[in-house]
Design a protein that fits this description.
Blueprint: E1 11-15, H1 20-31, E2 36-40, H2 43-57, E3 61-65, H3 71-82, E4 86-91, H4 106-134, E5 137-142, H5 155-175, E6 180-185, E7 190-191, H6 202-206, E8 213-214, H7 215-227, E9 232-233, H8 237-248, H9 251-271
Parallel strand pairs: 1-2, 1-4, 2-3, 4-5, 5-6, 6-9, 7-8
Helix pairs in contact: 1-2, 1-7, 3-4, 4-5
Length: 272
């Protein structure tokens, strides 16, 4: 098994491509010869990415500066993609909040559900019929180890990732034998670069450096897993530990423990 072969007309779509895992996925796909449609809010960053990837890998990169949290703004993108030959979809865009739900911003919590769950669902509904009819395609959904467990003080994020985790694994069952691959990426802490001590967040300080994985490694192993049509890829020791804990630790024990940890993240967010 392998990823769909790149052609002059098909495109790999990567959302949240302006930073982190999304940018690394776009770069790794370009390195493998795939032309791209990159999606994020920050068009100027995407333009820089386009220039770099086209110069370095001789692929075509199309920029779509879209706020996926806004249904009206993502509608033209969905309409376009319905008529395009989308070979690979990487649903990576996502946001998170920390702290008690009652104290968080109403509109931002609703936007988080749109980005993390509804937009991903919309994009899959849009491109999947074409993939099935062509008998080839690949979908990588960036869920989270957080989606395996209840997390007080991170309730909206954990719930949206639980949706994406379960949806991805359910969809695989429907697509068996169609030639369309679906893989769930469930990362824990991922770093783009080394962080100076004075710039470290609460999470940076309590998670030892050896437990972090970088975005380039995450992108590479994720696309390798997608090529093999693996159900789930969990890069790094901390991600794997979180996955095991979320699946096998009684929820009545797990929720208070992780809730206290995420409350600390909320305090850090409020003070930022």
């Amino acid at each position: 098994m392998s990823l769909p072969l790149p052609t002059a007309s098909n495109r790999a779509v990567v959302t949240g491509a302006s930073s982190g895992i999304g940018m690394a996925l776009a770069t790794e796909l370009a390195r493998r010869g795939h032309s791209l449609i990159v999606v994020a809010r920050r068009g100027e960053v995407l333009d820089e990415l386009k220039a770099r990837l086209e110069a370095q890998y001789r692929v075509t990169v199309e920029v779509r500066a879209v706020d996926l949290a806004d249904p009206a703004r993502r509608a033209p993108l969905l309409e376009e993609l319905a008529g395009r030959d989308v070979s690979i979809l990487c649903n990576n865009a996502g946001v998170a909040t920390f702290g008690p739900l009652a104290a968080l911003d109403f509109d931002y919590e609703k936007a988080q559900v749109q980005v993390n769950a509804v937009a991903c669902h919309d994009l899959i509904l849009t491109v999947l019929p074409g993939m099935v009819s062509r008998g080839t395609g690949a979908i990588l959904n960036v869920g989270s180890a957080a989606g395996n467990m209840p997390i007080p003080n991170n309730a909206t994020y954990a719930a949206t990732k639980a949706f994406l985790n379960t949806f991805s694994e359910s969809l695989r069952g429907e697509l068996k034998g169609t030639g369309v691959h679906v893989t769930l990426l469930a990362p824990g802490p991922v770093r783009t670069e080394e962080i100076a001590e004075e710039d470290k967040t609460f999470v940076d300080r309590i998670v030892p450096d050896r437990l972090w994985v970088d975005t380039e490694y995450t992108a590479r192993v994720s696309l390798d897993a997608l090529a093999k049509n693996k159900m789930r890829v969990v890069p790094g020791p901390l991600s794997q530990a979180m996955s095991v804990a979320g699946n096998y630790t009684p929820r009545g024990l797990m929720a208070p423990l992780v809730g206290r940890f995420y409350a600390k993240l909320g305090e850090g967010q409020a003070g930022a």
